[in-house]
Design goal:
Elements: H1 2-13, H2 18-35, H3 44-53, H4 59-78, H5 86-100, H6 106-119, H7 124-128, H8 130-143, H9 149-165, H10 174-187, H11 190-219, H12 231-246, H13 261-276, H14 279-291, H15 297-310, H16 316-333, H17 339-355, H18 365-376, H19 381-396, H20 399-403, H21 415-426, H22 436-449, H23 456-473, H24 481-504, H25 507-526, H26 533-547, H27 555-566, H28 572-589, H29 597-609, H30 618-632, H31 637-651, H32 660-686, H33 697-708, H34 715-732, H35 737-740, H36 743-753, H37 758-776
Helix pairs in contact: 1-2, 2-4, 3-4, 3-5, 4-6, 5-6, 6-9, 8-9, 9-11, 10-11, 10-12, 11-13, 12-13, 12-14, 13-15, 14-15, 15-17, 16-17, 17-19, 18-19, 19-22, 21-22, 22-24, 23-24, 23-25, 24-25, 24-26, 25-26, 26-28, 27-28, 28-30, 29-30, 30-32, 31-32, 32-34, 33-36, 34-36, 34-37, 36-37
Length: about 775
């Protein structure tokens, strides 16, 4: 049956119809991607090679055949299973490289170059052989000189892939690649120049990873296997000025998401700055200083963008003095005649507020705030949005002071004006443009969150204003999707502001208005199609944290929507936040959540059973078991067996050794398992049912033993593990003295003692003392 499908596809690729040949190439690639790794379609490759090499077939057949080879390689790289065998890989690469030769027609060269880009992932053995590697590199470099811009652009895309996949093989070719890319950036059309710039951006990313890896290995006293060759640093003196010139190629009518030459150059300079750090300053500062006051707006704007590219890379001590000198000039440029210069100046100030706020001179601070407030009323929504973003970053810099609950801070005298200004921005008729309303509301939220104690009277005055604004959103029209999205956006932003206010104000102040706020939040959840349920659940968590046990009266009305959130497996972010809300409510109303637990636990267990749900849901769900157990104590008994089985199943999953993302996920998963066990132990102990947990102790201890020897375990997991050891020893005492008087328990405690983390050492000291008491008892 399969042969009856495959053969017609090969025939169709030889048809005289371009569209038919293309569709056949795509379909054949899907089949070949499955069968070639298992050597199940022997006629596939000979037929395509004949199509490409035989003179009797027209160019469209050669193009379709090369497309098919490229698609096949791309699909194989995405599918699980074995790679294509080496002889087949060699034949594919030879055919593709032959197709790129200068003697071929441009459309054939383009198809071949595209196929090569997709097949390079399989060329590792070929790239190990210098002769074959030279042939591939020579062919690609020649293609960068093609008369056809598309061929040149794709050739550079191939070079980008080689930089990423075969960095260690670049040394012999870097001089040629430098000459080709810099010439192209200076002289070629924008589309090709962008591809040449991408080579250096990708090279920066590779070298940053290698530098980070080398630093980590050095700290651990291990040898460096893949050294960074420093290609970017070697080129920066000549390369950066060339890239700076691309910043003068602005497109005045370009959308902010447009990836043009100007944007490509800026991104690349930023990557270079992050790679070479301090060395970028002496290269780029002359360009900035020469052009920041130039008569040409393009050069003024380019100077600002070049300065922005340096802000994230050099050490603060190196870039800081230049930041201090730049702020007065940037404030002047906020009033530049050209809107793009004003926009860039506002963006630069925003980045300074984010990265280097302490280098803004104190005497300039009032002028900075005044200028940003003025720009919030700027006619251009784009400039106003950047000003709001700057206020957001400025307010974010006061987060530590907010944690310390200081009586006042440097923003306090300006808060009333800042709040009113941002509210006015939300009411602008063009607030939908350039993300302006979002920027203003997010700035409001962080100003509230990081405000000092002396601003609380102002927040009390603003609370009914936001509640009234929330009320007006329910009267907004939402007949079409754009109106619905706008309504959802505004309600989501207001939920965030409500959350911030409830985190800042006290219970006595908030109780009179809490009924109204909860009514509004539940109304948001009533709209099944709303996109702001995450924000609503987060706000509800904040409300429960403030009113604590008094939150019980809202549970009957909230329960259906809470369960709907827990079962929203498709929108997994909503599910995660809903799980967090259950945990928060459990901690706040404690045993009063028990009447709602059957539905909640069923929803949580179903989420763990669903094989299609996003993996990030699993850790908070497991942790939530502990929150509920602590809240309801003895009433957790009906859920103990099933939740313990799920925890044991999750703890038996073995983490990989070479996948950093999965290692991070498994640490999060294990931390959640430990949190669940701690909550269950404490809850059952408080309910005098701890004896029912005794049967699960061997599995828990086996899990702790595995953690004790895991080299990829992070300090959060270690902290939770040590805490659980202490809880078990304290709760069960001499009953488990033999089980905990083990070397792996001692290792966990010793590792925590030697961590250098004050909180972790304190936990380990307590756990060690209760373990000693249990063993000696």
């Amino acid at each position: 049956m399969r042969d009856g499908i495959k053969q017609p596809l090969l025939v169709a690729m030889r048809s005289g119809e371009n569209a038919v040949a293309h569709i056949a190439a795509v379909a054949a690639a899907e089949v070949a991607a499955v069968e070639l790794p298992y050597e199940q379609w022997p006629s596939f490759l000979p037929a395509l090679l004949e199509n490409i090499s035989a003179a009797q077939f027209p160019d469209m057949v050669k193009v379709a055949s090369l497309e098919c080879l490229g698609y096949t390689c791309e699909r194989v790289s995405l599918l699980p299973g074995p790679e294509i065998n080496q002889p087949t890989t060699d034949s594919i690469l030879n055919a593709i490289v032959n197709g790129i030769q200068a003697s071929r027609p441009d459309k054939v060269r383009l198809a071949a170059a595209t196929a090569l880009k997709n097949s390079l992932v399989f060329a590792h053995k070929n790239m190990e052989k210098k002769e074959e590697r030279d042939a591939i590199m020579t062919t690609i470099c020649e293609a960068t000189r093609s008369q056809e811009p598309g061929v040149r652009a794709v050739a550079y895309e191939c070079i980008v892939q080689i930089a990423i996949l075969y960095y260690e093989k670049l040394q012999d070719y870097m001089t040629t690649l430098y000459e080709l890319t810099t010439h192209t950036i200076r002289e070629d059309i924008d589309e090709v120049a962008k591809s040449a710039i991408e080579f250096w951006s990708s090279l920066c990313e590779v070298e940053q990873d290698l530098l980070d890896e080398s630093s980590e290995l050095q700290e651990r006293g291990l040898p460096i296997n893949r050294p960074c060759m420093g290609y970017v640093e070697a080129a920066v003196t000549h390369l950066a000025p060339i890239l700076a010139q691309t910043l003068t190629k602005q497109e005045e009518e370009a959308d902010e998401d447009t990836f043009n030459l100007h944007m490509a150059g800026h991104i690349c300079l930023t990557c270079i700055s992050q790679t070479v750090e301090d060395k970028i300053v002496q290269v780029i500062m002359p360009f900035v200083q020469q052009n920041i006051q130039n008569e040409s707006w393009r050069l003024r704007d380019a100077a600002i963008m070049a300065f922005i590219s340096m802000l994230d890379g050099p050490k603060e001590a190196t870039i800081g003095p230049y930041v201090s000198q730049s702020v007065p000039m940037l404030l002047q440029l906020l009033s530049d005649p050209h809107v793009m210069v004003r926009d860039s100046a506002a963006h630069c100030i925003s980045r300074i507020c984010l990265l280097h706020i302490r280098y803004v001179p104190n005497d300039i601070f009032p002028s900075l705030l005044q200028a940003l407030v003025a720009k919030c009323g700027e006619g251009s929504p784009k400039v106003a949005s950047q000003a709001c973003a700057a206020l957001y970053n400025l307010a974010s810099a006061f987060s530590e002071e907010a944690i310390q609950q200081q009586d006042s801070n440097a923003l306090s005298p300006y808060m009333q004006n800042l709040m009113q200004t941002l509210l006015n921005v939300c009411d602008r008729p063009d607030a939908d443009e350039s993300n302006l309303r979002v920027a203003a509301m997010e700035a409001l939220s962080v100003l509230i969150s990081n405000s000092a104690s002396d601003v609380q009277p102002l927040l009390v005055q603003l609370l009914p204003v936001f509640v009234q604004r929330f009320d007006t959103t329910f009267a907004m029209q939402d007949f079409d999707s754009s109106e619905q999205l706008k309504k959802d956006q505004i309600q989501g932003l207001l939920c965030a502001v409500v959350q911030a206010l409830f985190r800042k104000l006290d219970k006595q102040t908030l109780l009179p208005i809490t009924d109204k706020v909860m009514e509004q939040l539940i109304r948001v959840l009533q709209n099944r199609n709303a996109n702001c349920h995450e924000e609503a659940f987060s706000a509800i968590s904040a409300v429960s944290d403030v009113v604590e046990a008094d939150f019980t009266k809202y549970m009957s009305a909230l329960q259906p929507f809470l369960i709907a959130g827990l079962r929203n497996f498709q929108a997994f972010q909503v599910c995660i936040v809903a799980v967090g809300t259950v945990g928060d409510i459990s901690r706040n109303i404690e045993a009063q959540i028990q009447p709602y637990c059957d539905e909640v636990m069923n929803a949580l267990i179903d989420s763990l059973k669903d094989s299609t749900i996003h993996r990030s849901v699993k850790p908070p769900v497991l942790s939530c078991f502990g929150d509920i157990a602590m809240a309801i104590g003895a009433a957790y008994e009906p859920y103990l067996q099933f939740s313990a089985m799920l925890l044991m199943q999750a703890s038996s999953t073995k983490p990989p050794e070479d996948d950093e993302d999965l290692i991070e996920y498994f640490n999060l998963l294990r931390e959640s398992i430990l949190e669940a066990y701690v909550g269950i132990v404490q809850g059952l102990r408080d309910g005098n049912l701890l004896h029912q947990f005794y049967q699960y102790i061997p599995s828990v201890l086996q899990f702790l033993q595995e953690l004790s020897g895991d080299p990829n375990r992070d300090e959060f997991v270690l902290s939770k593990a040590v805490g659980l050891v202490g809880d078990l020893a304290q709760a069960l005492g001499p009953q488990i003295k033999d089980q905990i008087n083990q070397q792996f328990i001692a290792k966990l405690l010793n590792d925590a003692m030697g961590s250098g983390d004050k909180a972790l050492v304190e936990t380990a000291t307590w756990a060690s003392s209760v373990v000693t008491q249990a063993v000696q008892g």
